[in-house]
Amino acid sequence: MGFCPLRRIGCVRTGNIAEYLTRAGWTLTVLTVDPSLWRDVEHPQQRGTSFHGDVSVGWVSPAERTCSNLTPKDVDVILASGPPFSAFSLAQRLARRLHCPYVLDYRDLWSRHLHNHVPTAVTREASVIAGSAAVTTVSPSWARVMDRQFGMGAKVHVVSNGYDPEDLASRPGRSDGCSTTMAVMGPMFAKRWSGSGSRTRSSRTSLSRRATALEAVKGAGVAVVITSVADNATLEDNGMVTGKIFEAIGLGTPVLVIAPDGSDANVVAETTGLGRRYPANDVDGIASFLSDLTNGKSLGPKDTAAYAWGNLVSTLDGVLRDAVRA
């Protein structure tokens, strides 16, 4: 699965899961691609033939060989995080050989992926879900999507994305020296608009290094995260709650969330007090919010600790322990 030091937002989740499960008393062995095999961990390139929507299948055979010396005494439970979803099939095969349960962690949807439905993966997905002890995903809406598709019931649990307060506490902020700076977060870059009165300037900042991204967000007057601009949102749209929201919250930066009505991101904004959500077509509301921030209005934090990994991991810890006891 994706794991640090690979520079992808999903690796932040898996890294925090490993860190905080260790603190909860687990002894972990991480199975992932050797960083030396990536051309550049800052700009990872995936190449290969897609199989059921997964272009990472080339790592599976070497990973299986790496695990060939494991015995049932070595492993109590297997946790697989996807994408890549080839990790789920690998977890299923390893669990059969080692006579142990496995748990699937969905960072994205698989066959009903928000931007790339993969109907050819349905049978494979149904098989790995049926054999699993439990499934976790990042939002209530995505849990409902999977329950409707596969009839999962109590097997599916929500373990939100979040932030590590210890990681963010010492991060410096970078300011452009203007009264208002906006950091618009995207998968590969942030575009910063800085303005004072009628003057505005923008700069594109590479986020190849996560430290650079966090500096930009901490120094900004507001962080902007767009989950969907859809007018008629589906459950898949509503369940998109990107990890970028939580890092801004952990840094104490107000967040403007562009998301549909009914989005799970609204719960995050309301719970933490540091975000405001608007649909993409509410231009007046967005402008009013930004104007208030420019004029010095601040957002009072509420329960930001709800999304700190020290608290989030308790649900996953319970899921894994129940799997072992079953």
What does this structure look like?
By secondary structure, this protein is of the alpha/beta class. The chain folds into two domains: 9-162 and 309-325, Rossmann fold (3-Layer(aba) Sandwich); 165-307, 3-Layer(aba) Sandwich (Rossmann fold), CATH 3.40.50. The chain is built from twelve helices and ten strands. Strand 2 (102-106), helix 4 (122-131) and strand 3 form a beta-alpha-beta unit. Helix 1 crosses helix 12.
Strand order of the largest sheet: 7-6-5-8-9-10
Instruction: State mean pLDDT (0 to 100 scale).
Output: 84
Spatial extent as radius of gyration:
20 Å
CATH class placement of the largest domain: Alpha Beta
Helix content: 25-40%
pLDDT < 50 stretches:
39-53, 188-208
Global outline: globular
CATH topology (fold) name of the largest domain = Rossmann fold
Q: Kindly, what is the distance between the CA atoms of the first and last residues, rounded to a whole number of angstroms?
A: 25 Å
CATH superfamily of the largest domain: Glycogen Phosphorylase B
Give the strand tally: 10
Percentage beta strand: 15-25%
Q: In DSSP terms, counting alpha (H) and pi (I) runs of 4 or more, how many helices? A: 12
State the domain count.
2
Question: TL;DR?
Answer:
The chain is built from twelve helices and ten strands.
Fill in the keyword field for this structure.
12 helices, alpha/beta, 6-stranded mixed β-sheet, 326 residues, 10 strands
Architecture blueprint of SSEs:
Elements: H1 9-23, H2 60-66, E1 78-82, H3 86-98, E2 102-106, H4 122-131, E3 134-137, H5 140-150, E4 156-158, H6 165-169, E5 180-185, E6 189-196, E7 199-206, H7 210-219, E8 222-226, H8 235-238, H9 244-250, E9 255-258, H10 265-272, E10 275-278, H11 283-294, H12 309-325
Parallel strand pairs: 1-2, 2-3, 3-4, 5-8, 8-9, 9-10
Antiparallel strand pairs: 5-6, 6-7
